[in-house]
## 1
Amino acid sequence: MKVLIVSGFLGAGKTSFIRHMTDTLLDVDFVIFENEIGETDIDVKVLQEGERSLNVYEMTENCVCCTGKADFLTNLMTILSALDPEVLIVEPTGAARLSILMAAIEGLFYDAIDLLPPITIVDATTFFMEKDRFSDLRLEQIRHASVLILSKSEHLEESEIARFHKALHELSPEAEIITGDYTALPDAFFRRRLERQRKKENPGTCGEKGEEAHHSHGPGHTHEDCHHEENPVETVTLTDVFVRHPLYLMRFLDLVTKGAFGRIPRAKGYLPCGGDWVRFDLVEDHWMISGFSPQEGANVTLIGKELDEGAVRDYFANIAD
């Protein structure tokens, strides 16, 4: 079983890339492992809306690179034993450390598992802001990737593309950098991602960057230490909300970008809107709304810090009256 990690910070477009890749290579037997932040199945729903039905395993309680590492490896072996797909695609949470996840998989030392060169999705609309604000965690995912996909870059000028190339090359000199519309790439590009084998590393190293492979938690070490964040990311999930008109949802997303409910760089969800269902996706101050298939219940998830859940619930309660 080949294992392909597709990493990237919150809202970079990991799920969309995976959906396109699996729809492009319909002859390949894929299974997806999703590590979500909070109690949300939004990305799972998106993955199941494509050209074919996919087996999707989900873990929402812990991060696969830290507190949930043992559970993840158990799930990985279960998938291998029960399904043995050609390719298992792992989509870690945007707050996961790629090097630690790679080391955990390589640490199994099991010939039936081949770790492919990892892919990191880089959001062109937020990269330079994140580079300055969140240097350690965000850049770690770039430094350890073999392929960097610059998402949302199809409308950039050549001078802007050159600026991204220079910055990404400085961070990861050996990585292959892909810009423009990846959905226009030939099938062969995606198939090559499944053919290149990573060289097996000696115990104590991870990839070519020389990271420690065995990451243990000593006394006082916490999940937040693993991510080098002073404050852990918080989530708020609402499942009993609706809007009567898209304007109410647009107003809500506008308030999110203005900080009315806390520091929220990422929000996503689906909910009833009038007689239809809609899906929304927000990254920093950019958001979009699109149609969605009817679901059993709504799911509105906000990810950030200093979240005011009461204010969020009050907003939806007030517009429902």
Note: The first helix runs from residue 14 to 24.
## 2
Amino acid sequence: MFRDRRRRTPWSKILHCSKIRALFVLLCCNGWNLNYFRYYGPLYFKRITSSTNSGAFWLTSAAFLTRMVLGILCLPLLRYIIIQNRMSVTVLRKSIAFIAQVIPGTIALTTIAVHCKESVNIVIGLLILGFNGAFIGSGFINALDLAPHFAQALFAPMQALICVITAVMPFMVAYISELVKEKVYVNVMMIGLVYVVGGLTFITFGSATVQPWDIAEARRMVQSSISVTHLGYELDREADDDEQNSGLC
């Protein structure tokens, strides 16, 4: 009974925390676009280039490879910033959100109406995912920043939603592609809007500072643990006294 009480997750405070909601929006938008491009990428490259089916799949793989490489290249810079304490964690996280979300979203939105050469279209597709690689290099923006004592409880529903997005994405891509037919710019515009909305939401409302309620709840858990330990000690001592008294009788 006491153990369950000590480990109770403060869901009411979590749900009312604007910083948590901003993080939730950011992760959902990033997960949506990442999975959408995973399935829509081959169709995108096939329609904007003269590539064959296999060529379109190779270009999609190249886009994700670009994302991974640029994410790895970010690591030394981020490590230097953190070790040298060049900026606060909140500023760093928001800078990453700008690079990984707002910039690729802006690229997508500003090029949808531009008729470019095939090579330029390929570069644009690579850059959209490439800039998002900063999200990898940062070690992801996660709940450990806001609520380290309840990060495990927060991670589960967030990850569950990402899994749901991954599961339904093939159907979403098929439905939207059938709906807009050959209008590639509609898909690109949607990807751009999702990136920009996620990035600006976190930049405006997000944070990487441990929330006061997390510290307060952690202290309450410690105090409750001490109280329960003390109560257990008292009960054990009373049991020993009763046993000794019964032995004397």
Note: The radius of gyration is 25 Å.
## 3
Amino acid sequence: MIRLNVPLVPDENILNNLFERNIYTVNDFLQKKTSNLQSVCNLQCKEVTKLKDCMTLKCSSPFMNGCQFYLNRTVSTFIQTGIIKLDNILDGGLFAGNIYELCGPSACGKTQLCYSILLNIIITTKKDIVYIDTKNKFSVNRIKQMLKNKCKINNEINDILNKIHVYSILDIYKLITCLHGLKEKLEPIIFIDSLPALYLSFIGFDNNDGLCYINHICSVLKYLCKKNATIMITNLAVKNCDSTNDFKPAIGKYWFHIPNTRLMITTKINQQQQMCINITKSAYTPLNEKCILNIDNFGVS
């Protein structure tokens, strides 16, 4: 709220009279009846009305019609994951300016899915990828294996690896610093694998430090999304304590509403290893759309 000052009101005497009657801000002034302000300010009705109009004009957000808003919008695009079944349920691919969450139990293939998506994006778009590794388990050998199975030669493999910028971050403070450092990047594509690895160390303490840090991280992620960043985060799924025994995302209720799209992953082991992906939260695509993907030496397909 904007505090009243001399440029907003005619002189110091009027300002002091307003303060004596507990009218300190522009909002306080505008809410008072014009008839009451006449005696306080010693002004005529039309002068008080004009003063209110001036305050409204100076202190309000600028008006914008629908056409201006449409022309000034951030142009968002789809980035295809390169996995046809996944792109189909996502209605084309990853929507720039959004946070995607890959949520599933331990060892269900979340990291393998990240590897496959980032390699497909680099191969098709030639864009750089920021990969934040919080478990210190980024596997260059696995990346090379997947690329060799895609019939890539050594020079191509090296060029692709040079486009993956890996940040090994083992505490939540460095993650916050790293995310702030990405603010100047133009439309970055960011993978965070995984967020619970840094947050779970705060569970069990009486203070709310962990929640404060998650709140800070969410604010920075939302800022990056306004810059048209595409963000994919892996999260651990834990079982509910109720009778349903269903999986739910870790990190708590506060985080539950942060991702724009949540992909819940479960594993299916038949003759070959498979994963089932189900859309459990999305603002753009129908819920409970599912697909089954294979995990093999080529990655996830």
Note: The mean pLDDT is 86.
